[in-house]
Amino acid sequence: MSIWLVDAYAPPRGPCVVVAREPSPTSRRRRAQCKIGSFETTHPRQHVSNAFQTRIRFPRAAFAFAACAAVEASRLVQVAVAAALMSLDLRDTTSGVVGAVFNVYAGLPFDVVKVRLQTQSPTSVPRYGGLVDCFAKTVQQESVRSLWKGAIPALSSAIVENAVLFSANGALKRVFFGAGESLSTLDEALVGSASGLFSAAAITPAEVIKCRLQTYAHAESMGIWRCTQSIVKESGVMGLTAGLGAVILRDVPFNFCFFGLYDYYTAKFMDLSGIDSRRELHPLMVLASGGCAGATSWTIVFPADVIKSRMQVDTRLTFQAAVRKVWRVQGILGFYRGWSSAVLGSFPADGCLFLGVEMTHRLFAHFESNV
User: Fold this and answer.
1) pLDDT confidence of residue 39
2) Which terms under GO biological process does the entry name (predicted)?
3) How far apart are CA 193 and CA 169, in angstroms?
4) CB count, 10 Å around CB of 256?
5) Neighbours of 199 (CB within 10 A)
6) Residue 38: how many CB atoms within 10 A of its CB?
7) How far apart are alpha carbons 357 and 371 in whole angstroms?
């Protein structure tokens, strides 16, 4: 690129003469070594490889390449985020909300029992002897309604979680695989695990409040707002994010197994029924596929859920401290306390979740075909 200069020796009364001065030999040599400005900025990798291939010897050139790479990387991230946002579909969000309502009211009694079994003191005489004993004592001492204790925060948590989960799942499929593409079981599992990152961040505050309300016998009189105030007073605003690491550790592998196994089970039912589309599956087969996927996935990730519950009830516990405390007092069996209630509850809850999701998609398809 030529540098334009005004000739200082132009006649004083005549017009200014503008001449193009060629780069000096030193400038040519440095430009050949650094290649600055000699290529299109298309991808950050091009800047990095150019920097290494030309063996940059000058700090300014290194900074120039780094700046170009950073700008291009930032641009690509913005494009990816914009593409994901543009790929959001209201049908995915609505189906997630409907599935969440089905999920909560079908599985909340088992969830209440699971949390109580997980968080009872291991050093004193256990308050509950097991799943059936916990159900019986809860109903006798606190009424049947207590089995749905924490329903409002549980419902809000489930709606947020599943709306985000299924919205992100649908958007990621369209961004990386295209609309209408049929995915393999592994692809379904990978997209599901990536979606779990978004849902984990969204649900943690509601999960903390739900665990507090489910654990304390007189929490119902406290209410959601007073429970939130109590958590903030004890641990600050960050107390509402207690157990986030454990939630991520639970949800990412859980959703990997959950979506992958759901795809696997529905494929098997489709083969048995001789049909080609999941939309044609009988609702009972959808219910069974979701239930089996949920029960299997919970078994795999249950230790992380135990740690998550401990951290959210006692917000002062760190992840490592919670693991050490369970291991020291209860051993390996402590990581599976409440497993039976979780697995028994996950079958109807997760079965109803996918049933709600699939039926909502079918309803949208029916309306679209008749419009």
Assistant:
1) 41
2) mitochondrial L-ornithine transmembrane transport
3) 9
4) 23
5) 26
6) 11
7) 22
Lowest mean pLDDT among 17-26, 304-313, 361-370: 17-26
* Other Cβ atoms closer than 10 A to 347: 21
Task: Give the integer Cα–Cα distance in Å for 359 and 353.
Answer: 10
How deeply is 265 buried, as exposed, middle or buried, from its count of CB atoms within 10 A (0-12, 13-18, 19+)? Answer: buried
Query: DSSP secondary-structure letter at 172?
Result: H
Beta-ladder partners of 5? 19
In whole angstroms, give the CA distance from residue 168 to residue 95: 12
Strands (E), the chain: 3-6, 18-21
The CB density around residue 101, as the number of other CB atoms within 10 Å, is 16
For tokens 């291939």, the residue is 53
69 pLDDT exceeds 80? no
**More confident site: 259 or 21:** 259
Chain centre to alpha carbon of residue 53: 39
Structure tokens at 334: 């402590």
Distance (Å, rounded) from C-alpha 317 to C-alpha 326? 12
Most confidently modeled range among 20-29, 128-137, 354-363: 354-363
* Structure tokens, 218: 């007189």
Domain borders along the chain are 3-81, 90-370
Q: What is the CATH number of domain 90-370?
A: 1.50.40.10
Residue of 162, 167, 323, 337 lying closest to 243 (CA atoms): 323
User: Which has the closest alpha carbon to 204: 251, 257, 170, 168?
Assistant: 251
Beta bridge partners of 4: 20
Q: Which pLDDT value is given to residue 346?
A: 86
Contacts of 366 (CB under 8 A, 6+ apart): none
Under the banding of pLDDT at 50, 70 and 90, the label for residue 102 is very high
